[in-house]
Fold this protein.
Amino acid sequence: GENVEQHPSTLSVQEGDSAVIKCTYSDSASNYFPWYKQELGKGPQLIIDIRSNVGEKKDQRIAVTLNKTAKHFSLHITETQPEDSAVYFCAAIREYNFNKFYFGSGTKLNVKP
Amino acid sequence: NAGVTQTPKFQVLKTGQSMTLQCAQDMNHEYMSWYRQDPGMGLRLIHYSVGAGITDQGEVPNGYNVSRSTTEDFPLRLLSAAPSQTSVYFCASSYKVHTDTQYFGPGTRLTVL
């Protein structure tokens, strides 16, 4: 069936370094790609999203890139800080289908001070 | 604004028992949804609603019922709990459609013995 593969499952970086998380999707009709941050004991929170008509989007230290041909997209966090430590989820969604949601399995990011 | 609230935070059930997980939002959002989150897996959509009186199935609807009698409330009912329903359940809402920013509740951790 349709799915999203997310790598790596865990990522440990030193404070100030960059972190990159990658997702690959199989549903070629997906056209909306959000990224969520989930802190321990809390619900996911949207941090950035990208639509299929855009190749890259930036918001301060966070950026997302999308390659529709290869069906993969990535989250880039620069100048990481300890408060970036959390689980990050990607998702691939069809904008015009309310029930076509595919989430990655998550990446646990640990930023060491 | 309280945002999205969920009750209870924790629940233990015996196999065969029924219960209702409550979800409410005070942002006047049209779209609401329920997800389950299992270890090592991404979120999976159970049911969703695009407005009061309208509900539909997601990826994993079996064993769950929903209703949407008001804009604010979207309860999830487990008719006859099974151990396979042990999970963390998240409710989310967004302004009009699922690709608007989704706001998640804090989650309900359910254990079925």
User: Anything to note?
Assistant: The mean pLDDT of chain A is 93. The radius of gyration of chain A is 14 Å. Chain A touches chain B at residues 4, 6, 9, 32, 34, 41-46, 89, 91, 93, 95, 98-99, 101-106 (CB under 8 Å).
